[in-house]
What does this fold into?
Amino acid sequence: MAIRTYTHLLACPVCGAQFGSADKTLRCANGHSFDIAREGYVNLLLKKLPGDSKEMLVARRNFLERGCYRPLSDAINELVYGCLREQQGASDEAETANILDAGCGEGYYVGRLQHYLSTQQVPVSCWSIGIDISKEAVR
It folds into this structure.
């Protein structure tokens, strides 16, 4: 989904105002603006902090693809699903949950969680968003 779908969940890091969106920019009521990259992400950092390098991202991806943390991810998915089902109750018109993964890297956990929630016998309606300091990771 496009970043514009989630602008109501974001606040300007300079002043805290809610964002409106233009074609390629998020802009708050106080005029602070942040460009939306071609790939669809927005960098809301105020300082230049590099985050993980490409090499670190590749190493982490290789490690995660070996399944070492899959049991942890599965346990988190089950816990979140149980909490959301309890919160939403048995109602067919339950509210959509919002989940933020701050420091998501390439989105391993939030991606697996979103898939898990949507493929259960009783799916949970959920919007998830991942943010990370590493520009390379969120691409």
